[in-house]
Every structure is written in structure tokens, then in C-alpha cells.
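I'll show a sample.
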Amino acid sequence: MKIDLSDWQTMTYEQLQNKYTISKKELYELVLSQKLYLHSTVTERGKLTELEEYYIVHTDNLSVSQLANMFHKSYNAMLMQIKTKGYYDRIKSNKNKH
């Protein structure tokens, strides 16, 4: 399955899940496999869920901005949540931003 880039950039997670009939976990797997985290997304509000924390801990080499894109969060919100949870040392340096 492939997510259309325009859908990724303009739809919320709920809309994506409904359109593609997939779980959030499957959606994250597609985001990683298609490298959709390189593209800006709709910014949604909300704290990190257990599933998002799982992906931060188990996904290497993504920057704050890439994680923000992956989870539909603003850069500043993502940075605050990563630092609060103590995950800042697990992510790629922002010197390598795209």
C-alpha cells in the first residue's frame, strides 16, 4: 500500500486512517517505509501516545523536524515533548536537517 503525498500533507491521521483503512501503527510503518517524514504535514495537537513513544525509541536517525512531520506535530511541540520524556539523546542531530 502507498500513501499519496498530497494526502499525507493535507489530511489528519484520522482522515488517513479512514481513507486507507489502516491502524495508526500500520500508518507509522508506511510513513517510515515511504520516508514521508521528510515532508511537512498537517499539525495536530496532542501529547505523545505510547505508540509514538515506541517509534521514537525504536526508530534511529530521525531529527526533531522529521519526528514532528511523522507525528503531525509542530517542531516546538515535538522538541518539548522529546526533552520532557528524556529522548533527546536518541535522535539525530539537527545539523543534518533536510
About this structure: The chain has a mean pLDDT of 89. The helical segments are 5-10, 13-20, 24-34, 50-58, 64-70, 75-85.
